[in-house]
Amino acid sequence: MKLTPQRQLLFNLLHENDSHPTAESLFEIASKQMPGISLRTIYQTLGELAEMGELQLVDLGNGATRFDPNMGEHQHFVCDSCGAIHDVDITSAPRLRAGSADGFAVEEIGVVFHGRCNRCNLSNQGKLESQQIKRSPGLQAKKIKRVKSN
Ligand SMILES: [Zn+2]
Ligand SMILES: [Zn+2]
């Protein structure tokens, strides 16, 4: 397969972006570097790259398909607070068995980890601290004063 400029561009964009972008967000970035490129072309080119084995499609059950240049075996962590998606390596795959699924041919087990990413964890700690400050008597007195002066 030929390495068209569109393929080259999307390949580069995906490799400098580990956020598992959607086609729409890749379209936004790509338009800046290749004005006039259409969303249709983005979808088509992503499909071609997937066929070439350069990226995989990731569906984490939250609507949009994500594009992932990491072709190694890995699972994903989804931050329920900001929506960030991170790669998670599972060195020893869990041996899950589909309990009542006798006769089903399980070919793949996908695990999605949910929680809060380290950035949200930190900013949540920040929020807790500012809540404590708000509760401090000094600031509360100020607030009451301001209400009265209105
Ligand atoms: Zn987060
Ligand atoms: Zn990934």
Structure write-up:
- This protein has 150 residues and is of the alpha+beta class.
- The chain has one domain (5-116): Arc Repressor Mutant, subunit A (Orthogonal Bundle), CATH 1.10.10.
- Helix content is 44%, strand content 13%.
- It is built from five helices and five strands; from the N terminus they run H-H-H-E-E-E-E-E-H-H.
- A three-stranded mixed β-sheet has the order 4-3-5, with no helix packed on it. Strands 1-2 form a two-stranded antiparallel sheet.
- Strand 1 and strand 2 form a beta hairpin.
- The longest helix is centred in the C-terminal third of the chain and has 18 residues, at 118-135.
- The radius of gyration is 23 Å and the shape is flat.
- The termini are far apart.
- It binds zinc ion (2 copies).
- One zinc ion (ZN) binds at residues 79, 81-82, 84, 116-117, 119-120.
Fourth CATH level, the homologous superfamily: Winged helix-like DNA-binding domain superfamily/Winged helix DNA-binding domain
Tell me about the largest β-sheet.
3 strands, mixed
Mean pLDDT: 81
Low-confidence stretches: 135-150
The unique ligands bound to this protein are: zinc ion
Helix content: 40-55%
Shape: flat
Number of self-contained structural domains: 1
Number of helices: 5
Count every beta strand, where a strand is a DSSP E run of 2 or more residues. Answer: 5
Order of helices and strands: HHHEEEEEHH
Distance separating the two termini = 71 Å
| Category by helix and strand content | alpha+beta
Enter the CATH topology name.
Answer: Arc Repressor Mutant, subunit A
Widest sheet: strand ordering? 4-3-5
Proportion of β residues?
5-15%
CATH architecture: Orthogonal Bundle
CATH class: Mainly Alpha
C-alpha Rg (nearest Å): 23 Å
